[in-house]
Amino acid sequence: MDPAHFTAPDFGAVVREPGNKFAFWYFKPAPIPRELALVPATIKVLSDADAALGRLYGLGALIRDPELLLGPYLTQEAIASSRIEGTQTSLSEVLQAEAGGGSIASEDIAEVERYVAATRRGYELIKTLPITQRLILDLHSILLSGVRGQEKLPGEFRKSPVWVGSPTDSPGNALYVPPLPTDLPDLLADWETFVNTPDDFPPLVRCGLMHYQFETIHPFLDGNGRIGRLLINLMLMEEGRLGTPLLYLSGYLEAHRSEYYDRLQAVRESGNVQEWLQFFLTAVRRSAEDAVRRAERLVALREKYLADAAKTRSNLSALVALMFTNPFLTTARVQQRVKVTNQGARNLIKEAEKRGWVEEYGSFGRGGRIYWLARELYSIIDAPTTFE
Predict the structure, then answer these.
(1) I need a labelling partner for 139 at 20 to 30 A (CA). Which of 65, 113, 133, 214 fits?
(2) What DSSP string describes 98-151?
(3) Mutual orientation of helices 133-144 and 107-125 as an angle, nearest 10°?
(4) Per-residue pLDDT tens over the stretch 324-358
C-alpha cells in the first residue's frame, strides 16, 4: 500500500505501528464526518433515491401479506451479496435445495443459506434493538458458523491484521490495509454512535457513510462485505424508510462490482465522498425501481392465482401461498406446510399442474425426489434486472 496515494486527512491517514521498525503501512480511518456539505449533483441523486425508496415503501404497505414475497427477495439478495465475495451458485440451485429440506448440496449454497439466516435474524432484532456492536457480532456468528470461514472467529472481532487485494498475500503490495486490531474499539465506538444519531444527515446519506466506514474499518477476518451490505437494509428499516425489506441492493453492487470497490477506495485515498454517495444513492434508486416493478408483477400473478383458487373447494389457495415463498415444490414440502396427507399433497400439485401453474422439473437426490417448478412465478423472480 503506497502512502503517497492517500491524500485525504479528513478521512484518515496511512501510518505505521509506533516503535516497530518492521511494521507495515496501514490505513487508520478518521471518525465519520458529522458535517458534510452536499454538492448539487449529490442532492439531485439523493432526491431521486428518496422518491424511489418512497414508492417501494408505499407498495410494501399496500401489499397484502408482504411477508409472502420476502423469501425470493432475500434469496436474491443473499446470492448477489455472496457472489461479490466469490461465491458461485444460482437462484434455482439455492431454492431447490431449500425446497428439498435435506442436506446442503454445496458449500456455496450453504453460505447463501447462512446469509439468509443472518438476514432474517437481523430483521427480527431490529424491531426492538438499535444497531450496535452486539447486534453485528450476533449476525456475524450466524453468517460464518458451520461454513467456510468458520475458523475465522465467527461472532468475534478480528485479533490480527488483514489486508485486501494483495497478489502475494503481503501487506506491502496490498491495495488496502485496514486498521490494526488495537484501533478497532475506538473506531467501532464512533461508528456505533454515528449510526444511532439520526440528526446528522438525511437517512440515505447516513446509510451510505455508515457502509463506507464499516467496510473501511473491516472489523472481521471474513464476512465484512456481507455484513456491511446486510446492515444497509437494517438501517433503512430502523430509520422507517423501509417497512418490508424488499430492497435488493446487492444486485446493483454486484453488477457494478469494480466501480463499487473503486468508489470506496477513492474516499480513503482522495476523499471523494461525494462521488461515493452519488454511486450509493444511484444504487438505491435503481434497486428500488427494479424492486417495485418486480413486486407489482408478483402481486398481479398471485392475485390471479388466488382468484382462480377461490373457485375451487380444494386448499389450492394454501398452495399458492407456498409457491410464492419458494416456486419449487415437492410432495413432502406441500404435505408438511399445507398440513395435508401425502395423497392430498399429490392431488394439489396435480391440480396446479392442470392449471399450468407448475410443471415437473425433474428427479434429484437420493431416492429420486421429484420437484415441480412454478415456471411463470420463477421467471419473474429470476428476470434480468433493469438497472440501466
Answers:
(1) 65
(2) HHHTSS-S-HHHHHHHHHHHHHHHHHHHTTTS---HHHHHHHHHHHHTTSTTTT
(3) 150
(4) 989 999 999 999 999 999 999 999 999 999 999 99
Closest by CA position to 235, among listed 255, 223, 249, 251: 249
Mapping DSSP to helix (H, G, I), strand (E, B) and coil, where does residue 212 land? helix
Number of Cβ atoms within 10 Å of the Cβ of 150: 14
Cα–Cα nearest to 223, from 108, 295, 142? 142
The predicted model scores a pTM of: 0.92
Give me 211's grid cell.
457502509
Axis crossing angle, helix 316-325 with helix 273-309, rounded to the nearest 10: 160
* CA distance to 306, 327, 363, per residue, from 372 (Å): 19, 8, 9
Question: Which positions ≥6 away from 228 have C-beta within 8 Å?
Answer: 211, 214, 215
| Per-residue DSSP letter, 219 | -
C-alpha–C-alpha distance, residues 327 and 357, integer Å: 10
Q: Beta 12-16 vs 328-329: how paired, if at all?
A: unpaired
Report yes or no: 125 and 108 within 8 Å, Cβ to Cβ: no
First to last CA, the chain: 34
User: What are the grid coordinates assigned to 60, written together?
Assistant: 410494501
Residue 103 — very low, low, confident or very high, per pLDDT cuts 50/70/90?
low
Contact 328, 99 (CB under 8 A): yes
Cα dihedral sign for 223, 226, 229, 235? negative
Sequence-distant (≥ 6) Cβ neighbours of residue 263 within 8 angstroms: 272, 275, 276, 279, 280
Note the pLDDT of residue 68: 66
Locus of grid cell 453468517: 143
